[in-house]
Amino acid sequence: MIDFNISSSALQERIEQLGSFVGNTPLFPISRVFQKPGVKIFAKLEWYQLGASVKARPAYNIIREAIRQGDLTEGKHLIDASSGNTAIAYAAIGSAAGVPVTICIPENASAERKQILKSYGANVIFTPATGEMNEAQDRARQLAAEKPYQYYYADQYSNDNNWRAHYETTAEEIFAQTNTEVTHFVAGLGTTGTFVGTTRRLKEINPNIQSISLQPNAAFHGLEGWKHLETARVPNIYDPRVADDNREVDTLEAHDLLKRVAREEGLLLSPSAAANLLGAIQVADQIDEGVVVTTFADSADKYGEVMKMIFD
Asked: In the chain, what are the domain boundaries?
């Protein structure tokens, strides 16, 4: 049983200690599935942090700032809606810090995600699969409004601490790890925090860096966490002005790329990570020189059924 009876001062101290386990992920060179003289592709391996995904960054920043501001106090639950990785990041960080976490998630979430959330001690509220993330968001918002004394509503889709996490960490890491040579940043749109925050800071550092956003080429797709913005509820933190270009990627092409990356690069990627690489390759194919950087949100660990389908 996780002990959530922790004083505010101890909570503040504990969350600061956990900061060293978030971010600072390695930059991996893609050298076999893509080769072109004068052009390089690198990817941030985001599963090398607490919670094992890119969502550790915004989840940690959201929790830390809520504690600092006094919105998340002793015994109060953080509540939010998530399709998977953010939920797991909240739960991992919450269990380590002493913050109880309640997650609203569609009932068709994968068995792996359900088991991981249970292992971390999160309280899980399932919403109908037919309502997808919209209904999960509405349920979290409703519970927080009904019981403000019990819940702090994190609202990752509207919380500026989501994109600020990437503004303060991801962008700085990319610039330093490429020895200031990054020319293009490519990332998919989900909550849009990774793309918006990283791009805003990279543009401040060097306005010549090109940022290209990615989304699925159809409303019904298999890219966990991504949004087809034309048909989805657009996150409030999204800023369409930051992208230099917007591209679409195909889910089946991303699945095909998974096999090559496993056999030629030694990485087992999630479908969304492969989709990011697919977009990065599209960009790299069209330039004569440059350094293209993307993010691999997570590994294949939480996608048992998808991986079985792809590799069988």
From this structure: 9-52+164-311, 56-153
Of residues 149, 94, 96, 154, the one with CA closest to residue 123: 94
Asked whether residue 119 carries a pLDDT value surpassing 90, the answer given is yes
Residues 69 and 71: their CA atoms lie apart, in Å, by 6
Q: What is the pLDDT of residues 144-180, one digit of tens each?
A: 999 999 999 999 999 999 999 999 999 999 999 999 9
| Domain 9-52+164-311 grouped into CATH 3.40.50.1100 | yes
Q: 53 is written with which tokens?
A: 């995904």
Q: Which is nearest to 6 in space by CA: 76, 81, 87?
A: 76
| Among candidate residues 135, 49, 142, the one with its CA nearest the CA of residue 92 | 49
Q: Does domain 56-153 have CATH number 3.40.50.1100?
A: yes
Q: What is the pTM of this model?
A: 0.95
- C-alpha triplet 255, 258, 264: angle, nearest 5°: 150
- Shortest CA distance to 40 belongs to which of 242, 215, 252, 293? 293
Distances (CA, A) of 284 to 26, 124, 195, 291: 21, 41, 18, 8
Exposure b/e, 41-54, CB count within 10 A at least 16 = b: bbbbbbbbbbbbbb
E-state strands within 19-158:
27-30, 39-45, 77-81, 101-106, 123-127, 151-153
CA angle, residues 209, 36, 34, in degrees to nearest 5: 90
> Strands of 184-188's sheet, edge to edge?
27-30, 39-45, 290-296, 184-188, 210-216, 245-249
